[in-house]
Design goal:
Blueprint lengths: L15 E2 L3 E2 L2 H25 L14 E3 L5 E4 L7 E2 L9 H11 L11 H14 L9 H9 L7 H18 L1 H11 L6 E2 L1 H9 L8 H9 L13 H17 L5 H9 L14 H10 L5 E3 L4 H18 L4 E8 L5 E5 L27 H10 L8 E4 L19 E4 H6 L3 H11 L1 H10 L25 H12 L27 H12 L13 E6 L5 E7 L3 E8 L11 H16 L22 H4 L14 E4 L5 E2 L18 E6 L5 E5 L2 E6 L3 E4 L5 E8 L5 E8 L1
Parallel strand pairs: 3-7, 5-6, 16-22
Antiparallel strand pairs: 1-2, 3-4, 8-9, 8-14, 10-11, 12-13, 13-14, 15-17, 17-20, 18-19, 18-21, 21-22
Helix pairs in contact: 2-8, 4-5, 4-6, 8-9, 9-10, 12-19, 13-15, 13-18
Length: 714
């Protein structure tokens, strides 16, 4: 009978008994296996009771707004106020990733979520020292703790992390687990993820970091609050230097490189996150609140440069003044830059108000479109003589020039370049203010009249309201040979939108206006004949405008107080025009001038056809009645069978459209969309249209009197 204590037991060797007698292996081996299997079974049972891991909260990110090249314009905090920007291993400096793995988890690529070697090392060191010397957590276990945080760090919580780590790697794979760490790791305060930390502490994306910066970002998550460099820079430096030393010993850094990294200062303050195109970003987020990544068509480099320009010039112009700038790509109508104010966070200038979308009076900035319509209707030519003299256009309306002087007889070209008021009102009277407003609205501009009053002659001098963005689009139409650019959304960088099909002018009249505006005297210290531009100053010195274009881009500038208060000396030419020319300089490249259409008439005033030599008011000739188009009437639809499927693309047979006039002094000149089609001593003619569509029919007599109608050919 064996002696007491000789049977095998889970806690003893159980090999010998009674001196030299050996206990057979078949008796102690099953017990030993049972002792080993019992904890594993308990772990398996515990793992089976755990609910599925919910990753929805962990996958929530800060909304980021990017420019057309994918560069960050502005991030938004999460709903709980955290800065958790999307980040992946492919967008992070490889040296940072190497340091992270060497410092936190050297066998990350080989283990399945738990590193047995690290766990055993931590246990042995803890037994020897009587305290925790090193942790056995892998990056996967740290991600598990971040995804499913526990209030207390107990043995059960550690076991739960280990089980979750294995499950995460099986479910997501190594790459996605690493990406979760890069997005969720804490860096102190409201910063989560390496991208938010890199922007906050270094003001740069984590794609390119110095060795010292990478080491600091590796060190912070272990104790993010105690090592915050903006509060405890000495602790942050000590932790960073430990990472640098480990990286040196592991061969990631050379001795000289490590020495330079230790000498690099630690940041002692957080930098603000980028806030470029703040107004456009908020608009885009409001339109698509569920998207985490919003791509705008803006050029981030240009946006940043023009925001700095607006802030600088507004500060120099005076207190409470703001500025707005819009840049359009004339090729496809996309917005390249939109500066809504002189500083989004500048409360003194009411920077939160987007002045690029505010309705304001444009002053003289709409005059070019009055001239364009007059050229289109055959009422005038750039060399037509106009009178700039004291004139009364109604019982109470007698406009004056800005400087209270008059130039006498000048050409239409000179009148527009000097922004003379009397000629502009005379042309508006000939064009018709109601027709002018309707034309601009049909082109896509949202014009606002005071209290919805009927359009009057003061519209020529800014007696209505519109936005800076709409004004830029109108001028872009001139730059595009009269064709309005498509209304391209700011969000998205997909294919260019289809052509709008709307026109602000014909190619000839658009070129006439552009050619005139290129000769406008530039502001001080600017080169002449480089830019087609126009300025405007609203009544009471409330708004200063300047809009310019070449074939590439159109840039529009506004300066004023957002509350609409008057600012003495706020003149478009003095305040807004220098900003416009500086904005073009910052855009860069050489200005490109559009080619002259072959139909454009280049002639001196004396060489023009008699009706175009001098602008004359439409009045009856001696002993005769006033000139009027008797047929077709204004707004008529003329059915020539061109709108039917069989008639599409065909020219009408017969005489086409009959043209009849009454009154006036022969010979009569008939014009279609500004181009002469017939000259006759009779008051009847005809015109054969090219196809269906809208047409503007005009007639001029020998005295310069004229009349126009718009019809639709079907």
């Amino acid at each position: 009978m064996p002696r007491a204590g000789t049977d095998p037991a889970c806690g003893g060797d159980g090999v010998r008994g009674g001196g030299s007698r050996i206990v057979p292996a078949r008796r102690w081996l099953p017990l030993l296996l049972a002792c080993a299997a019992a904890p594993l079974a308990a772990v398996a049972i515990y793992a089976a009771t755990l609910p599925p891991l919910d990753l929805s909260a962990a996958r929530a990110r800060s909304v980021v707004v990017l420019d057309r090249a994918g560069e960050l314009l502005r991030p938004f905090a999460t709903a709980d106020g955290r800065w958790r920007l999307p980040a992946t291993a492919g967008a992070v400096d490889p040296r940072y990733l190497a340091m992270l793995k060497v410092y936190e988890d050297r066998r990350f690529a080989r283990h399945s979520g738990i590193d047995p070697v690290a766990v055993l090392r931590a246990a042995v060191q803890g037994l020897r020292q009587g305290r925790i010397v090193s942790g056995g957590s892998t990056l996967s276990m740290q991600v598990a703790r971040l995804v499913e945080p526990r209030a207390k760090r107990t043995a059960v919580a550690k076991l739960r992390q280990a089980i979750r780590a294995v499950g995460l790697e099986q479910r997501l794979g190594k790459a996605q687990v690493l990406d979760l760490y890069l997005a969720l790791a804490p860096f102190g305060g409201s910063l989560e993820g390496v991208r938010a930390a890199s922007l906050a502490y270094f003001g740069r994306e984590p794609a390119r970091l110095t060795a010292a910066q990478a080491a600091l970002l590796v060190a912070l998550p272990q104790s993010p609050e105690a090592r915050r460099p903006d509060r405890f820079p000495d602790r942050a430096r000590a932790a960073r230097d430990r990472v640098i030393e480990i990286a040196r010993r592991r061969g990631l850094l050379g001795d000289d490189e490590a020495r330079e990294a230790r000498a690099e200062p630690v940041p002692t303050a957080r930098r603000p996150f980028p806030m470029l195109a703040a107004h456009a970003a908020e608009e885009a987020l409001a339109a698509e609140p569920s998207r985490e990544v919003i791509r705008l068509g803006l050029d981030g480099r240009l946006q940043a440069s023009l925001e700095a320009l607006a802030a600088e010039r507004a500060a120099a112009a005076g207190p409470a003044l703001s500025a707005a700038i819009v840049v359009l790509d004339n090729r496809d109508g996309r917005t390249l830059a939109r500066v809504g104010s002189a500083g989004y966070l500048d409360a003194g200038r009411r920077g939160a108000i987007d002045m690029s979308r505010a309705i304001r009076s444009p002053g003289s900035a709409l005059k070019p479109f009055v001239y364009a319509m007059a050229f289109e209707a055959g009422l005038a030519h750039p060399e037509t003589l106009v009178e700039d003299r004291p004139s009364r256009f109604s019982a109470s309306y007698a406009p004056e020039n800005f400087d209270l002087t008059f130039q006498g007889t000048v050409t239409a070209r000179r009148a527009l370049q000097l922004s003379l008021n009397v000629p502009a009102v005379a042309l508006m009277e000939a064009v018709g203010p109601a027709r002018f407003v309707a034309h601009l609205r049909s082109a896509g501009a949202d014009l606002r009249l005071p209290r919805e009053a009927a359009p009057g002659l003061p519209v020529a001098l800014g007696g209505l309201g519109l936005t800076l963005t709409d004004l830029a689009r109108l001028y872009a139409g001139l730059a595009r040979d009269g064709e309005m650019p498509p209304l391209a959304p700011e969000a998205g960088t997909g294919p260019a939108p289809a052509a709008s099909g709307r026109r602000i002018a014909g190619p000839v009249s658009a070129w006439y206006v552009a050619d005139i505006l290129r000769g406008t005297p530039p502001p001080d210290n600017a080169l002449p004949n480089r830019l087609a531009y126009k300025t405007g100053t609203s009544f009471g010195y409330r708004d200063a405008w300047a809009v310019g274009f070449d074939r590439r881009v159109t840039i529009a500038v506004w300066v004023g107080r957002p509350d609409g208060a008057a600012v003495p000396g706020l003149v478009g030419r003095l305040v807004a025009a220098p900003i416009l020319f500086d904005a073009f300089a910052r855009y860069g490249g050489e200005t490109v001038i559009g080619p002259r259409p072959p139909e454009a008439l280049l002639a001196a005033s004396a060489d023009l056809p008699p009706p175009l030599r001098r602008l004359a008011k439409d009045q009856p000739a001696e002993g005769g009645a006033g000139l009027r188009i008797a047929y077709p009437p204004d707004g008529a639809r003329v059915d020539l069978g061109l709108a039917s499927p069989a008639g599409r693309g065909a020219r009408p047979e017969g005489e086409g459209v009959v043209l009849k006039a009454s009154g006036g002094v022969p010979p009569l000149t008939w014009m279609i969309d500004g181009m002469p089609v017939a000259r006759t001593i009779r008051r009847q003619s005809s015109w054969v249209p090219e196809g269906a569509g809208f047409a503007r029919i005009s007639v001029l007599d020998a005295t310069g009197a004229s009349d126009s109608v718009s019809v639709r050919i079907e």
